[in-house]
């Protein structure tokens, strides 16, 4: 039995999704260049990106629109992006090619295993978890990604001073995330409660529509503190 045969949290539930011809072509032709195969050993990030730079991990990038925009606007950073759904991976790869981006690499695998096995402690300057599945029904809360054990794992991979940024449009999940981050002794809130949306996180079309309808969006931004 492998050491990852049992784990309390998975970062996803695999769902079927339609993939366009363009996404399929991008996945087939560009994944060998911008993809990093899952491996059960530490990843050399300098080798993977071909340089040394601040490293931001994004977990669950959906169709990759925000990811591509952030990478375009912040060429000084490298973005290691994790997503399991092939249409989304193909979409981001297509945008990487169209924008000529060189600072994104993609791992198409479960984020929990990537964090445990591929990333060494103290290697990340930041983590983005934007609009994770809220699993709104109470009986499904145990499936939520952001739980104490997962936050502890993220803290181990963050450098001192590195940030952990989650955003959600479900108020109850926002309350849960804020409480979970606050309970981790290695994290310190950057705001009194919820943070203003940082400039680097673009508004999605879905989010803009929701805000016009009066729906809320909550950003939670903490930093990895040094313990005495």
UniProtKB/TrEMBL annotation:
Keywords: Methyltransferase, S-adenosyl-L-methionine, Transferase, tRNA processing. PROSITE patterns: SAM_MT_TRMB (PS51625). It comes from the Bacteria. Gene3D superfamilies: Vaccinia Virus protein VP39 (3.40.50.150). One of its GO terms (molecular function) is tRNA (guanine(46)-N7)-methyltransferase activity. It is an enzyme of class 2 (transferase). GO terms for cellular component: tRNA methyltransferase complex. S-adenosyl-L-methionine binds at residues 58, 83, 110, 133. It catalyses: guanosine(46) in tRNA + S-adenosyl-L-methionine = N(7)-methylguanosine(46) in tRNA + S-adenosyl-L-homocysteine. Substrate binds at residues 137, 169, 204-207. Pathway: tRNA modification; N(7)-methylguanine-tRNA biosynthesis. Its EC number is 2.1.1.33. The keyword Transferase applies. PANTHER family: 3-DEOXY-D-MANNO-OCTULOSONIC-ACID TRANSFERASE/TRNA GUANINE-N 7 - -METHYLTRANSFERASE, PENTACOTRIPEPTIDE-REPEAT REGION OF PRORP DOMAIN-CONTAINING PROTEIN. Belongs to the class I-like SAM-binding methyltransferase superfamily. TrmB family. NCBIfam families: tRNA (guanosine(46)-N7)-methyltransferase TrmB. Catalyzes the formation of N(7)-methylguanine at position 46 (m7G46) in tRNA. This is tRNA (guanine-N(7)-)-methyltransferase. It comes from Sulfurimicrobium lacus. The gene is trmB.
